[in-house]
């Protein structure tokens, strides 16, 4: 079995000082939500063997805040191709994950990236899901939203559309509401 966790970056400021989208930083809510999600991961033993992070400031800040909670911090890599990646590009990046890891048995991979690609990718991968979770994910993958998908495969190269089971979909808002 392989587990893929797709996390959208935390909430950001509207504009960056440079005017570049890549340079947008987390806002106050984002700086609160990222550790909240890390505490959730730790409490539910959802610790990635490797995390692939987009090079945008907001994704790196999200991961840094999360890694500060997860002890020891999981291995991570900044992957330039994650910025602006669509579902097909994300699939190629995930399939190549084993080659990025020193862990010979990479079982749990996390990707910290952006919408709309991340949401589209999650939805394409799902074969089975609870109706409520799937509907929530179809409506929106909010900032700090996490989709956890399981695959009955032994090699990341075998990940494919309509082969995953949505184990859970959570966000800081859902956690606050007690869902």
CATH architecture: 3-Layer(aba) Sandwich
Report the CATH superfamily: Phosphoglycerate mutase-like
Question: What overall geometry do the principal axes of the alpha carbons give?
Answer: globular
Please report the total strand number as a whole number. Answer: 7
Give helix and strand order, one letter per element, not per position: EHEHEHEHEHEEH
The main sheet orders its strands as 3-2-4-1-6-7-5
Average pLDDT, to the nearest integer? 93
Number of helices: 6
Low-pLDDT stretches are none
Largest sheet: 7 strands, mixed
Please state roughly what percent of the residues sit in beta strands, choosing from under 5%, 5-15%, 15-25%, 25-35%, 35-45% or over 45%.
15-25%
Distance between the termini: 26 Å
How much is the radius of gyration in Å? 15 Å
Helix fraction bin? 25-40%
Q: Helix/strand-derived class?
A: alpha/beta
Q: What's the structural domain tally?
A: 1
Tell me the name of the CATH class: Alpha Beta
Named CATH topology: Rossmann fold
How would you characterize the overall build of this protein?
With 179 residues, the protein is of the alpha/beta class. The protein has a single domain (2-177), classed as Rossmann fold (3-Layer(aba) Sandwich), CATH 3.40.50. It has 6 helices and 7 strands. It has helices at 28-43, 57-67, 87-95, 117-125, 131-139, 172-177, and strands at residues 2-8, 50-53, 75-78, 108-113, 126-128, 146-151, 164-170. Helix 1 packs across helix 2 and helix 3 packs across helix 4. The longest helix is centred in the first third of the chain and has 16 residues, at 28-43. The model has no long low-confidence stretch (mean pLDDT 93).
């Amino acid at each position: 079995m392989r587990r893929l966790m797709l996390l959208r970056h935390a909430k950001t400021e509207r504009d960056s000082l440079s005017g570049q989208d890549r340079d947008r930083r987390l806002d106050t809510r984002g700086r609160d939500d990222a550790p909240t999600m890390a505490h959730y991961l730790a409490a539910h033993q959802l610790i990635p063997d490797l995390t692939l992070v987009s090079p945008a400031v907001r994704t790196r800040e999200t991961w840094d805040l999360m890694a500060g909670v997860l002890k020891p911090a999981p291995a991570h890599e900044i992957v330039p191709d994650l910025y602006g990646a669509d579902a097909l590009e994300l699939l190629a990046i995930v399939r190549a994950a084993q080659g990025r890891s020193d862990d010979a048995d990479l079982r749990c991979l996390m990707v910290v990236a952006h919408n709309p690609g991340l949401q589209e990718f999650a939805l394409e991968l799902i074969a089975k899901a609870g109706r409520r979770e799937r509907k929530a994910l179809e409506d929106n993958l909010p900032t700090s939203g996490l989709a956890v998908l399981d695959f009955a495969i032994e090699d990341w190269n075998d990940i494919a559309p309509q082969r995953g089971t949505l184990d859970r979909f959570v966000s800081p808002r859902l956690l606050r509401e007690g869902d």
